[in-house]
Specification:
alpha+beta; Cytidine Deaminase, domain 2; 6-stranded mixed sheet
Amino acid sequence: MTDARSPSLSVEDRRVAMREAWKRMQEGELERRNTRDALVSIAMAHANDEQLRVEALRLLFSDEDPSADEANERVAVDMLPHEPSAEIVRFLGGTAVDRNWQETVPSFVRSYTRPSEVYSDLDRPERQILQLLRPKQSVEQTIFDVFLHPPQRPEVPGINWAERTRADAWGLLTRLDNDGSIRASILGSPSTGAGSRDDAVVNALRACWNDLGCVPVTGEELAWLLSLAQPDSDHVRWWTQAASAIAGINDDRRLALKLYHAEPLRYTARARVDRFNQSKTSLLSELRGRINQRSTYRRSEREQGKQPPADDRLSTWQDKLAWADVIALMAIDDAISDDDVRKALFSHAELDHSDETTEYGGILRPSENAPDTYVSVLYPPRPAHRRGDDVFVASSDMIEQSDHALAHFHFHVQRWSNRGYAGPSWGDLEYALRHGRICVVFTGISRDELDVDVYFPSSEVVDLGSIRRRD
C-alpha cells in the first residue's frame, strides 16, 4: 500500500495501486486488517483527491467478509460528522440506504447540521438520505429522535459524544423549525419520549410544553430551560407561579407563547391581574398613552455594510406583536417607572459612561424581598470580554443568574448626547435571537435622560420613550 498512500504519485497511479493491493488481499497475499486500515486512512484524509477517496470507499464496501458490513458502517459513522465533500456524503448515503445502515442516522444528522454554501437546507443530500433511511416519519421527527436518543460511544477524555450529538440535533432543528412549532407538535405526541422517562432533558421539554406552553428554540434557550428545571426551591417557586399564570390563558393566546413570556406573565398574574382580562387592543391603547407622554428618539446612525436601523415605532409593530408581547412591554414599562429601578439605571449609566473599555449591561429581575416588583442588577463585563466602548459582552455570571429575569439590558452612553444610536444595533438583535431573551437598550440623550428601546428575539423594536433621572 506504499504507492497508494504516496502523495508524489498521480491520482490514477494511486488508484491502480489500491486496486492491486485489494486484489492481493483477496488472494491472501496481504493481511486483511492492514489493507483495510490503509484504505480507511486514505478515505478519511480530506486532503486526498475526492475521487481517490471514493475509490478507497468502493473497495472497502465491496468486501464480502462476514465482518465487513459492520466495520464499513462504522467507517461511515465516523466520517460523516466532519465530511466536507457532498459527493462523498451522497456516496455514503447511497450505500447506507442500500444496506439499511441505521447506525449512520445520527451521523447524517450531524453532517446536516454543518452549513452548506451549495445547497439550501431543504435540498441537502443528507435530508434526502434521512428520509430514505426512516421513510415512515418526517425528517424533523428523525432529527428529534436523535436528539432524544443520542448514540452512546466509548468515552474520550474531554468529549461527551452524546451531548455533542444532542446539541447538533437541536441546532439543526432550530434552523428547520425556527418558530418551534414542529418541536411543539412532536412533543405533543403521546409516543414522543417513550422509554426516556429518566431523561432530564426530555422531562424538562415536556414540562415546558405542558406548563409554559412553549419549547425552547435555540441552544441557549435550551440551556436556560434546563437551568430553570433544576429542583431548587427558588426555581420550583418561580415555575409554579409561571405555570399557574399560563394555565389561565386561552388557547389562541397560548399558541404564540415563548419561554421569554413566562416571567412577564408570572409578574402580571400576581401584580396586575386585571391585564389578563384586557384585549391586545386595550393593552396597546394603554401602552400608547404612556409612550405619548414621553419623548421618543429614533436611531439614525447606520452600521457599515448593514441595513438601515430597525423602525422602533409601536405603530409599525402593533399588528405583529402578540398579546403576550404587549404584556411584556407593559411589565418592562412598570419596571422602568419604579423610582428605585430608575435610580439604579442612572447609576449604572454613570459607571458605563466613565469606562471607555466596554459597554455595561445587566438584568431586570424580580426583587428577592418583593418578587412582584423588579430590581436592576449590573454585571460589568470581565476584563477578557472588554472589546471596546461600543460592544457589550454578557458575562457567564449574568447569563447564569438571569433565569427569572424580565429582560437583559445594556447601555449606549459613550456620550451623554448619543441620540443617533438610540436603539439596538444589528448585533444587539442577533444577541436577543440567539439567547431567546427580551432585551432593552438604554441610550443617553443627556446626563439626566435615557431613551428606552425594547427588542424581541423576533426582531420587533419598540421605543417606550425616554425616562428622566429622579433625585
